[in-house]
């Protein structure tokens, strides 16, 4: 039985990047042998095991054969007769198809090390077009390794995946998984540039509007180290509402994506009023501030409101989150319970008096 480190850990070591999780390939073994040595099986579609002490993943070397459409349309074969080279040839990109032996020697039959030095993302072979997830992974790796070019022939295969309808078999959960990883890179916009370049964006995320304005806001979010929900909101701020159902993003991401456009609109109105002193109806001041806070449910969700402000500032650049959080703190000093008790339980009176108290607190903040 032979064991090799493969894939990302080897690639990142060659690039001088910090080591992440290690993936191992086992050659010359069977599921029965792995179980006898104390490994715990965890794989669904193919044999993957957890090491009894380190809990790292060890996969049996395997080959695959296309049996249907989509990324699930494969039959896998894993057994003692599958060589390391067989396993490497089924991978997506040459830079991910490098192995390292226990003694440190590289096994690189597909030229991945040379492509890493040349900063090129290149497909392993023609089977690239059999799995549409490889297109998403390529786009995500292009965002992570933003100084890498993409081989022209690899982009051609991506266009074939779109033209032949393979990308239409991608399920929303798989699309979101890759989007989430790509969004958290230092240059997330490149992922969407690649999807546009191969004609895939409208197919994997129908309704997503990708333009220079959206790209600039997302770039600012990445530069400022915003979290996934904030970056997702920046990505989706000009897109159709149905996109959220299509992507199946977590609720925290959906919430920010839903609220950000309204916040930006109110901030724009307030900014316009500040520049136009002759405006007949003031839209800046305590009443407007309270309306904005209420529209974002900021009084109950202050942490989320602060995250929204940071995202909005990536678009506008003049939001002043500290000032808004100070206003929110002032409005939250009102004891709604005490006001309700004094109002004698009349719902309409309670609502009006709580609002009046909050407006007074905001007025005092001016």
From TrEMBL:
InterPro entries: CCA_bact, NT_sf, PolA_pol_head_dom, PolyA_RNA-bd, tRNA_CCA-adding_enzyme. SUPFAM superfamilies: Nucleotidyltransferase, Poly A polymerase C-terminal region-like. Keywords: ATP-binding, Magnesium, Metal-binding, Nucleotide-binding, Nucleotidyltransferase, RNA repair, RNA-binding, Transferase, tRNA processing. Its cofactor is Mg(2+). It comes from Castellaniella denitrificans. It comes from the Bacteria. The lineage of its organism: Bacteria, Pseudomonadati, Pseudomonadota, Betaproteobacteria, Burkholderiales. This is CCA tRNA nucleotidyltransferase. It holds the Pfam family PolyA_pol_RNAbd.
């Amino acid at each position: 039985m032979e064991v090799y480190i493969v894939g990302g850990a080897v690639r990142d070591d060659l690039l001088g990047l910090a080591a992440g999780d290690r993936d191992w390939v086992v050659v010359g073994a069977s599921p029965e042998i792995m179980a006898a040595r104390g490994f715990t099986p965890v794989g669904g579609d193919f044999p993957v095991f957890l090491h009894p002490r380190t809990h790292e993943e060890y996969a049996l070397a395997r080959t695959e054969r296309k049996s249907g459409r989509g990324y699930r349309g494969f039959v896998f074969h894993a057994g003692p007769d599958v060589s390391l080279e067989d396993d490497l040839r089924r991978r997506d990109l040459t830079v991910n198809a490098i192995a390292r032996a226990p003694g440190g020697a590289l096994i690189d039959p597909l030229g991945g090390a040379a492509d890493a030095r040349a900063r090129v993302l290149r497909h392993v072979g023609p089977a690239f077009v059999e799995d549409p997830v490889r297109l998403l992974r390529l786009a995500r790796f292009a965002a992570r390794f933003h100084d890498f070019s993409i081989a022209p022939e690899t982009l051609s295969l991506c266009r074939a995946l779109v033209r032949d309808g393979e990308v239409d078999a991608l399920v929303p959960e798989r699309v979101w998984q890759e989007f989430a990883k790509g969004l958290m890179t230092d240059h997330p916009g490149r992922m969407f540039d690649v999807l546009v370049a191969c004609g895939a964006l409208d197919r994997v995320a129908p309704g997503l509007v990708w333009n220079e304005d959206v790209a600039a806001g997302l770039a600012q979010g990445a530069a400022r180290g915003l979290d996934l929900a904030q970056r997702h909101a920046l990505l989706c701020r000009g897109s159709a509402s149905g996109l959220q159902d299509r992507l199946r993003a977590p609720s925290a991401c959906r919430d920010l994506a839903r609220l950000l456009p309204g916040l930006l609109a109110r901030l724009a109105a307030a900014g316009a009023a500040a520049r136009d002193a002759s405006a007949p109806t003031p839209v800046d001041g305590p009443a407007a501030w309270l309306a904005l806070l209420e529209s974002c449910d900021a009084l109950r969700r202050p942490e989320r409101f602060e995250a929204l402000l940071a995202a909005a500032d990536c678009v506008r650049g003049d939001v002043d989150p500290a000032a808004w959080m100070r206003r929110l703190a002032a409005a939250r000093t009102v004891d709604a319970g005490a006001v309700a008790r004094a109002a004698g339980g009349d719902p309409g009176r309670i609502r009006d008096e709580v609002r009046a108290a909050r407006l007074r607190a905001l007025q005092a903040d001016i």
